[in-house]
Amino acid sequence: MTTPHVPQIFAERRRQARLARAAARQRQRGDAARFLIEEIGADMIERLSFLRFAPMRALVIGPYPAPLAAYLAQGGTPPLIAERADPAQPLEGGPFDFIGVVGQLDAVNDLPGALIQINRALAPGGLAIASFLGGQSLATLRAAMLAAEPERPAARLHPMVDARAAPALLQRAGWKDPVVDSHVLAARYASLERLVADLRDQGLGNALAYPAAPLGHAAFARARAAFAARAEADGKVRETFEIITLTGRRSRAGT
């Protein structure tokens, strides 16, 4: 049986590099943005609390929100933190009662394969929650990039998962009791540069395998003007972030 070919849209080394740069920015700057990371962490805590699920052995993949780590440690065992683990590869240290994935699935080539690896790392009956940016995100930034290069637009932003396609991915990966939902978070920016900085702060920079060359001065000026043209009365521009959350379990039989 032949292995299906997986298109190489993203480069793992670039995904790792953006995580490393984001971690450095978080250490060096007291005002580095964390609102998406914190939102995902708070949402995971709410879901775990609602389910009254208290895992004894937990793994968090990606930039971890401190409140989530503290919540998971209440059972007496601090969670294993694997900020730079590749979710598309076998996950070490398991099996786990709970796996939380903060971002990361937005930039893996083999998303079904990553979901399979997460499922395999769970103990029978274990729970996984994975949250990442979805296809309705960054509409304003995308429009600005299109305005920058109207005749020959280059691939500068990631293709993103449509929430409507996610249930089939979970079923294909063998997750039990799969649930997919999404919500939208909005932020307002005085400049295009500040939006880009917030994305980089949170490890959401470019991880494309074949990134386009940097924008030239004229193209960037067009992008900045297109962004500013969307400003509201107070001069700030609204940007939206769709957070898709996948929830599911491994079967109690461990299959």
Quick structural summary:
The chain is α/β, with parallel strands linked by helices.
Would you give an account of this structure?
- This protein has helices at 12-28, 35-51, 66-72, 111-120, 139-148, 166-172, 192-201, 217-228; strands spanning 58-61, 80-82, 96-102, 122-133, 176-189, 237-249.
- It is α/β, with parallel strands linked by helices and 255 residues long.
- It has one domain (12-249): Rossmann fold (3-Layer(aba) Sandwich).
- It has a six-stranded mixed beta sheet, with helices on both faces.
- Strand 3, helix 4 (111-120) and strand 4 (122-133) form a beta-alpha-beta unit.
- The mean pLDDT is 92.
Mean pLDDT: 92
> What structural class do helix, strand and pairing data support?
alpha/beta
Can you tell me the overall shape?
A: globular
Tally the beta strands.
6
- Oligomeric state of shown chains: single chain
CATH superfamily: Vaccinia Virus protein VP39
List keywords for this structure.
Rossmann fold; 255 residues; 6 strands
Q: Layout of helices and strands, plus pairs?
A:
Layout: H1 12-28, H2 35-51, E1 58-61, H3 66-72, E2 80-82, E3 96-102, H4 111-120, E4 122-133, H5 139-148, H6 166-172, E5 176-189, H7 192-201, H8 217-228, E6 237-249
Parallel strand pairs: 1-2, 1-3, 3-4
Antiparallel strand pairs: 4-6, 5-6
Helix pairs in contact: 2-3, 5-8
